[in-house]
Specification:
three-stranded antiparallel sheet; 32% strand; six-stranded antiparallel sheet; alpha+beta
Amino acid sequence: MTTIAMAFISIGDEAMSWRSERIWIELITGSRKTSNFCWAFILFLGSLGFLLVGTSSYLGRNLISLFPSQQIIFFPQGIVMSFYGIAGLFISSYLWCTILWNVGSGYDRFDRKEGIVCIFRWGFPGKNRRIFLRLLMKDIQSIRIAVKEDIYARRILVLYMEIRGQGPFP
């Protein structure tokens, strides 16, 4: 009887991966990252503040004690503040929904013995919520790694696979 060696590897914000001699499974975190929680929370509080300031200027009452309603005139400042507050709440609700649905999470599975690559991701609710690709390793023509840098000087590695009969996809 043979034993299979397993290794758990943690890479930055990414989830754990599992390896053996035959199978390699890479778990993908998706939208449930700490930065997404922080941005959704900050955006919600900020847009709620804008909406309260706009509403207090309309009502003529101090709903927020930091800004007396006499200093902000409803037309045009109060209307603009209310608009920014409503727009921010929509964007915040979008972020919270992507976190709740865990969009982008899934796994990549590479099976050397069977010669199969499986890619699974969760999408937005609907008929295409589950994205599952099963490819034969012999159909993979090339694999390219692209290094991209964001504004915070972090390097992001993107793996592109070119499949016979299809173009490259990340």
